[in-house]
Amino acid sequence: MQKLQFPPYSFRFKNSENKVAIFDEIRKKFIILTPEEWVRQHVVRFLLEEKQIPKSLINVEKLLKVNGLNKRYDVVVFNSDGSIHILVECKAPEVKITQGVFDQIARYNLTMNAEYLMVTNGLNHYFCQMDYENERYDFLPQLPQYKN
Description:
This protein is 20% helix and 39% strand. The protein is of the alpha+beta class. The protein has a 6-stranded mixed beta sheet with strand order 4-5-6-7-8-9, with helices on both faces. It has a 3-stranded antiparallel beta sheet with strand order 1-2-3, with helices on one face. Strand 2 and strand 3 form a beta hairpin. The chain starts with 12 loop residues before the first strand and ends in an 8-residue tail after the last strand.
């Protein structure tokens, strides 16, 4: 798999039906390794190790209803009160981060009301803080450290 713009992390792999699978610490199971999954697993490790977010507050690949349609978010970090701290959208490294990707996460966030958004393809990372009062998001150089 391609080297990403994250610190180096060690992962557990196994072969499953002639495909490589990677162990997801949050879902507690092996997941078939796709380019997008490679990015998602790096994001999870980044949140756990660099941002010191407790594992119990991270959720991966859950169903979400957007305008009556079933969608799946990539990663969500909750606050201890159950509100959403960070919503993350992961793309495969070959997928360019375009306005369409920001529109996608903004649509998801209409339902989720996260404090922060992260969009990444593993090579380019974008961080935003939501400004609900002025109906916009402000780009940040980095996500803030987690505080409980």
